[in-house]
Task: structure prediction
Amino acid sequence: MNFIYKLLVTALGSGYSPIAPGTAGAIVGSIALWLFEKYSIISTTTTPFLFIGLILITTILGIIATNRLEKEWGKDPSKVVIDEVIGMWITMMFVQFTWLNVLIGFILFRFFDIAKPLGIRKLENLDGGIGVMADDMLAGVYANIVLQLIIYFI
Result:
């Protein structure tokens, strides 16, 4: 079971990247979005409730797996990047999938994830997997709001 947890929280191994594992995780999240759209599996705009369901299920599984792996890897290990995947998915909620939108969303999400303004840093203090996931989820919300404004005004 540990193998499955590790596969999930490292976003198919991207969390093992020696350089910027969080960025690697956000890239995997972006690629997943592209695959969802390309193969009409699920969409952030045409099937948003299914997409929200996917986010919720993945978040819950990420929290459970992170809680189990923190015993082995320590608190908030850098290998855990499922939170970046979720943050990227939240960034793109209700946003039309175009490569420009994904690129802008990616940049915004990474900014909020790294800088941690507006209360994001406080969420890191929550215990276990909830703390790991919550700060990236809020970073995704902020990135989504800014992205929606950019799209609206441009």
